[in-house]
TrEMBL record:
Catalyzes the transfer of the diacylglyceryl group from phosphatidylglycerol to the sulfhydryl group of the N-terminal cysteine of a prolipoprotein, the first step in the formation of mature lipoproteins. A 1,2-diacyl-sn-glycero-3-phospho-(1'-sn-glycerol) binds at residue 135. Its main location: membrane. It is a multi-pass membrane protein. Keywords: Cell membrane, Membrane, Transferase, Transmembrane, Transmembrane helix. It comes from Paenibacillus mendelii. Belongs to the Lgt family. Pathway: Protein modification; lipoprotein biosynthesis (diacylglyceryl transfer). The keyword Cell membrane applies. InterPro entries: Lgt (IPR001640). Residues 312-363 are annotated as: Disordered. Pfam families: LGT. This is Phosphatidylglycerol--prolipoprotein diacylglyceryl transferase. The gene is lgt.
């Protein structure tokens, strides 16, 4: 029996149809924004800073994700160019989105005068929560699913609710809900990043590297379950290496089908491995060379003003002037005479004080 498929269209406004895919991606972006704004306040960064980042970053990410996908599927689009813009039909790649978002972020942070790594650290949990929520858009569209799975495995072993199991029934065949696997993996990673960023040992840039490591590990193992992976024909030793690294998963799962005529190396798996290696090397080198001297919890300094984020030159000047106006005294507190001063003042009063005054005048 074929289960009921969820309608990918949420509602229509006349000739305009609003897809669940867009609503889910919008929700993912909003939650990520709120998370970044909340953490940014600890460092003096205004909500407008992240609002502007979102306005530039989301279109850049969508464009990057689409171009990345189209580039590896060019044979499907070269004779139908208008289809390139039909993003509501699916066909975006998360690594392309990251490339677009990071390119936008680099130039935006540089324009604002902040270190890329410091702001990217703040945004790392937002990336994970965005991916965690965004994967449910794949669920509604019935895309990015895994290979065939027994209905009993989904219902009785994984104990998934019927509305998820039914949606994983594509043309009468049940499939692994890889969107759900990745969403749950990202949820665990989000919790990990939120804990890590409160640890004193964490250095600048290391939360971003932790994001790359965590996400890439999960993506490597989940990607092999899918049947729609972008792939290329690589050397046999590389394909064997990827299969060997994934082999522990064979105890529980079988890899999704990958047409050998299309390719033998899944691109996302290869990128995941390279990202893990690169992130670990970057952390080690920065620690060894002293480049990671700044901690995550340290104030974020503007490269334009040399002041902490959120502090203007006027505020810094007022603070410095206020400190300079306070008299330098030994003992006591500002605005109160010292005990020695009080004693001197009292010694000038009374008959002895008057005599001392007259003597001082004669001298």
């Amino acid at each position: 029996m074929i289960g009921l498929r969820l309608d990918p269209i949420a509602f229509a406004l006349g000739p305009i149809t609003v897809h669940w895919y867009g609503i889910i991606l919008g929700t993912a972006a909003l939650v990520g924004l709120l998370l970044a704004v909340r953490e940014g306040k600890r460092f003096g960064l205004s909500p407008d800073f992240f609002m502007d980042l979102l306005l530039f970053g989301v279109p850049s990410a969508i464009i990057g994700a689409r171009l990345y996908f189209v580039a590896f599927k060019w044979e499907d689009y070269k004779n139908n160019l208008p289809a390139i813009f039909q993003i509501w039909n699916g066909g975006i790649a998360i690594y392309g989105a990251l490339i677009g978002a990071f390119l936008c972020g680099y130039f935006y942070f540089r324009y604002k005068g902040y270190s890329f790594l410091r702001i990217a650290d703040i945004c790392a949990p937002s990336l994970l929560v965005g991916q965690m929520i965004g994967r449910w858009g794949n669920f509604v569209n019935q895309e990015a699913y895994g290979g065939p799975a027994e209905e009993s495995f989904l219902r009785d072993t994984l104990h998934l609710p019927a509305w998820i199991v039914d949606q994983m029934n594509i043309n009468g065949v049940f499939h692994h809900p890889t969107f759900l696997y990745e969403s749950l993996w990202n949820l665990a990673g989000l919790i990990l990043l939120l804990v890590l960023r409160r640890r004193a040992f964490l250095r600048a840039g290391e939360l971003l590297m932790s994001y790359f490591i965590w996400y890439s590990i999960g993506r490597f193992f989940i990607e092999a379950l899918r049947t729609d992976s972008l792939a290329f024909k690589g050397p046999a030793w590389l394909a064997s290496l990827m299969d060997g690294l994934w082999s522990p998963m064979t105890l529980l799962f079988e890899q999704g089908y990958l047409d050998p005529e299309y390719g033998n190396v899944r691109i996302s798996q290869l990128i995941a491995v390279l990202l893990v290696i690169a992130a670990v090397i970057i952390i080690i080198i920065r620690r060894k060379t002293g480049a990671a001297s700044v901690r995550y919890s340290d104030p974020i300094i503007s490269q334009k003003t040399g002041l902490p984020a959120g502090v203007t030159a006027e505020q810094a000047g007022d603070s410095a002037a206020g400190k300079a106006s306070q008299p330098i005294q030994k003992g006591g507190s500002a605005g109160k005479p010292t005990e020695a001063g009080a004693g001197q003042e009292s010694s000038l009063s009374g008959p002895e004080g008057e005599a001392n005054t007259e003597s001082a005048k004669k001298e």
